Amino acid sequence: xxxxxxxxxxxxxxxxxxxxxxxxxxxxxxxxxxxxxxxxxxxxxxxxxxxxxxxxxxxxxxxxxxxxxxxxxxxxxxxxxxxxxxxxxxxxxxxxxxxxxxxxxxxxxxxxxxxxxxxxxxxxxxxxxxxxxxxxxxxxxxxxxxxxxxxxxxxxxxxxxxxxxxxxxxxxxxxxxxxxxxxxxxxxxxxxxxxxxxxxxxxxxxxxxxxxxxxxxxxxxxxxxxxxxxxxxxxxxxxxxxxxxxxxxxxxxxxxxxxxxxxxxxxxxxxxxxxxxxxxxxxxxxxxxxxxxxxxxxxxxxxxxxxxxxxxxxxxxxxxxxxxxxxxxxxxxxxxxxxxxxxxxxxxxxxxxxxxxxxxxxxxxxxxxxxxxxxxxxxxxxxxxxxxxxxxxxxxxxxxxxxxxxxxxxxxxxxxxxxxxxxxxxxxxxx
Length: 431
What we know:
six-stranded parallel beta sheet, formyl-coa transferase, domain 3, alpha/beta, 36% helix, elongated, Rossmann fold
């Protein structure tokens, strides 16, 4: 017999792998964040979206809801019972503890819980943590390994740090809204709250790095993300382009046609809207696909600058050609065969049932106690060593895990928990 296979030796070293498969890929029994405890003090969208992704990777996320009503997102569309589909999407798989934080006893409970967790995530307004004795300085003084991760509108420093704000303020102040809309129309916000979502994704990644730093050094730290900074960081050319030209160039709204790469934008197909993104290397191929090779050397369109200057005329030519197809599917197939980047503009309803999103686990089903089977968005990351569970966990009812968590973290007795409930410090909708 030959020598032992190195891969078999490696597998014995790293331990067992389950025989279960999702999309034909094995995944490890232990989830990536197994053993990490998160105290989630967030509400609405930005913070809960970050902690939801941590829960999807196996973290124990304890959501502290503010009594008596809990996270206000329970009242956002679409409401059923004492919760909503909005709440379910961002809070499935978490444990809920509902505490009256207007009381000293309630704040003491949260403070004691916080020092027994790995990460505290919060999105309070300016000064709220300090007034409740939950500041980073105070908590880290008790446990210097704890990580606090914060989302606020504008951060702890800077001229705007004292202000509260929501998603639209982030879109407006980042300069992103200025670039959205028709050239002769007002600035517009996006249909989805991208400032909230970008902040949540950014904080999710930052928490992972803070945990990695603690793994190496043993030190906790304070991590801060704002609604405005991630959007400002997303400017691909507006900031550096304005600086590089000494202020002579500025990016402006350009409607459905990209202002600096033409033809790129939204075009009317035979049935619906189609997007193209044609850079200079693809331009001759598009001309060939259109059966109009002469356009590639036409002085109106031969260079990137010329295509920008004559973008309206080029848009018309492209759309006229698109109308010669019987269907969007036939048009997209022809573009694909010619290696032209293109896609149909799907509605959210079309996207959530598209086979691609379903197969990749982006459209997932939660069995909600109030709404029944509910389609929600999934984790937008893939790991070779981890797959999301086949069955999504349900969201918690308000205060569902009060007793369980307080016994586990603080070793409170039944009598102590009953006293807190009798005094209205703990709220449980099931009782």
